[in-house]
Amino acid sequence: MPRYKLLIEYDGTGFRGWQVQRNARSVQGELLRAARQLFEGEVDVQGAGRTDAGVHALGQVAHVDAAKVMEPFRIVFGLNDLLPPDVNVLRAERAHPRFHARHHAVGRSYLYLISTRRSAFGYGHSWWLRDRLDLRAMQNAASLFQGFHDFVSFVDRDLDPAASTTVDIDEVQVEREQDLILFRIAGSHFLWKMVRRIVGVLVQVGRGHLGEAEVNRLLTTPSTQPAQWTAPPCGLYLQQVRYKDEPWEPLFLPAFPLAR
Questions:
Q1: Of the residues 11, 52, 81, 150, which is catalytic?
Q2: Within 10 Å of residue 76's Cβ, how many Cβ atoms?
Q3: How far is the C-alpha of 208 from the C-alpha of 192, rounded, in Å?
Q4: End-to-end CA distance of the chain
Q5: Burial annotation 151-188 (CB, 10 A radius, 16+ → b, else e)
Q6: Mean pLDDT across the stretch 241-254?
Q7: 58, 182 in Cβ contact below 8 A?
Q8: Shortest CA distance to 237 belongs to which of 125, 116, 110?
Q9: Is the per-residue pLDDT at 157 higher than 70?
Q10: Computed from CA positions of residues 68, 73, 76, 82, in that sequence, does the dihedral angle turn out positive or negative?
Q11: What would the pLDDT profile of 35-73 be if each residue is shown by its tens digit?
Q12: Are 92 and 5 in contact (CB under 8 A)?
């Protein structure tokens, strides 16, 4: 049975998340439906990671097992003809039979967008904040998250209470581009709500409500405070799933006219 690797982008606004759920629309469910039609039989679709309701993806990776051999370019065109407009396959390639989209990933990066003005294009795709944020203070505090830390204060343990909360963060960038503030966080893996809570804490720094000492304390002493500052899902994008010998992609914006 051939296995194919897919690179996928999607607008998460109308989905209950990536994973198939009973009586709810999911990205995985739409891909399964389209792939069954294209390959004319049962298929298996497994993603590199689950995104929550309302979270988007610029570079989700999945593998598909099908009973039919097909040229990759035909898979791209065929799936996109069958998928709804809020899911798009960017690339397909034949994969090694043992390749696994999730188990073989060695890192992931996320993009978070804050709009500093009300935008007709940004609704559902960024977090609009009226507050004036101190960019330099957020950049300085962002560097504290880099390295190997226990992020127990930044995760929601309800989904998987047995999961380890230690994560190796390679990079945290905070940049401004016109009316947008961009956060890019890259690391070994991420836990439920972790990125959104890091962003929420950095926003509190930008507002002047937290200093670097308080951020350090949240990284060294368990606290429930970051939960109250969790950023909304609408501004979060899975940017890249990285595999062995692949470099990190640079920070980039989605291809739509957000807050211009």
A1: 52
A2: 18
A3: 26
A4: 47
A5: bbbbbeeeeeeeeeeebebeebbbeeeebbbbbbbbbe
A6: 90
A7: no
A8: 110
A9: no
A10: negative
A11: 999 999 999 999 998 899 999 999 999 999 998 999 999
A12: yes
d(CA 142, CA 140): 5
Query: 187 has which bridge partners?
Result: 108, 169
How many residues appear in the chain?
Answer: 260
Average pLDDT over residues 4-32: 94
pTM for the whole thing?
A: 0.93
Q: Under a CB-based contact definition with an 8 Å cutoff, are residues 114 and 126 in contact? A: yes
What does the mean pLDDT of the chain come to? 92
Active site residue 52: yes
Main-chain phi, psi angles of 14, to 5 degrees? -95, 15
For residue 244, name the pLDDT band (cuts at 50, 70, 90): very high
CB 154 within 8 A of CB 194: yes
